[in-house]
Structure formats: structure tokens, C-alpha cells
Amino acid sequence: MNEIKVYHSVWKAAITIVADLLLIALGVWGILNGKTPILGSFFVLFFGFAIVMTVWPLVKEKTTKEPYLTITDDCVKVSGRKGQEFRFADVESFRLRRFLFDGMIEVNYRNERTTPGAIMVSDLAIKLKDLHAILNERLAACK
Fold first, then answer.
1. Which of 36, 40, 87, 93 has the most crowded CB, counting CB atoms within 10 A?
2. Rg of the chain over CA atoms, in angstroms?
3. Cα(40)–Cα(28) distance, rounded to whole angstroms?
4. Which pTM was predicted?
């Protein structure tokens, strides 16, 4: 099988950034209005940080030319903050965990003492269920 590279989606990130900017504008309005300066300051700081956390992976991928996920025949490499690698030979199963608009893929190891790992999949250029299907397909081929 071939190597699959998965990057973050610019369009999904753009939607998140627009929503964050609207909430920052609401916070600025709250500060200037004078009725809720503490809440307005919280909105500006929190959603300003959210923009930084949304843009950072995109900038990192564009400058280093390194994808967020690389799926090979024998492992999954995640180049996030921790730089994890999950070898299919050590993995028992991949579980899909959904949140409100996002989700993650939980990695359960064959060794029961090992703490399950997780692949965070927010704003990726592939659908969550498609990524889950690819990982399970590669896991079945490895067994």
C-alpha cells in the first residue's frame, strides 16, 4: 500500500477563525460598552488564543512541508506537539470518539497496561470516519 499524508484544512480553519473574530468583536464591544469589561476581556484573550492555536498548525505545515499525519503500512506518525508514532503491530484497535463538532481517534494497545493514546483530528482535510476506516483497514492488513 502507499503512504497517505493528511494535512490541516485551510477552509475549516478559516471558518473557525471567522467565528473567533466575531466573538472577539463581541468582547471588544463588551469592553467599550462598559457593562461587561471582565467578560469582554476574557472573550478577547480566550478567542485570540484560539486563533493562534488554529493558525499555528497551518503555518507549521506550510513552512516545514511536513504533514500532520503520515499513514504508512506499519505505523501512523503524528507530527503534533508530541510527535507520536503508533505502530500497527502494537495496536489492538482504533476507536472513534466524537465531541460536539469534532472528535478524536483513540488508540488501544495490545498490552493492557499501556495507557490508550489519542490522535486529535480537528480541522483535518479528511473526514473523521474516512480516517478511521483507513486506520482500521491498515490495522487489519497488518494482523
1. 40
2. 19
3. 6
4. 0.82
